[in-house]
Amino acid sequence: MSTDEEIISKLTKGDQKSLYDLLYKRYYKKVLDKCFSFVRDRRLAEELTEDVFSKTYEKLGSFKHQSRFSSWLYAITYNHCIDYLREKKKINYPEWNNQNEIPEIIDETEPQLSAINYENLQAILELIHPEEKALLMMKYLDDLSIKEISRALRISENAAKMRLKRARTRVFYLYSDRFLKEI
Q: pTM of the predicted model, to two decimals?
C-alpha cells in the first residue's frame, strides 16, 4: 500500500484520478466526522466533506510536504467548516469572544479524570466558538503541534498558543460551572 506522500508525488506528476480515489477512501470518514462535529447535520456534513475533497484535489499542487498530508487535509477541513459557519451564522471570533467573557480568575486545578463525563464534555464543546473547538480538536484529537495549528488556521504561533489556552480555560470553566458544582 502506498503512503500518502507517494500517492501525492505521483498525482502531481500527472492527473491520475484513481490515485486520488485512494486518498479519498482513506480519509473520507475522518473528514466527514470532523465536518459533522461542527454542523451536527449529516446531509450538510456530507456536502461539506465533498467540498473539502474538491478543494484538496484542486490545491494538491500547493501541498509542500511541510507536514503530514492528513494534517494538511484536516486544516482544509477545519477552515472550510469555520468559514461556512462564519458565513451562515455570521459569527466572528473576536466579537464572540468579547460577548462570551470568562472570569479573569478561575480555579484551574484539574478535575479528576473520573469526574469528567464524555457526554457532558461534548455538550460543552457545542457551546464554545467553532474556532476554539477546532483548536482543541487539532491539538488533542489530531495531535497537531502549535506550529501546524498556526499554519492551518493562518495565525501566528503565539496567537495559536493564546487561543488554545483561552479555549481550554473556557471549556474547563463551563464544565466546572455546569457539571462539577455538585461534586
A: 0.76
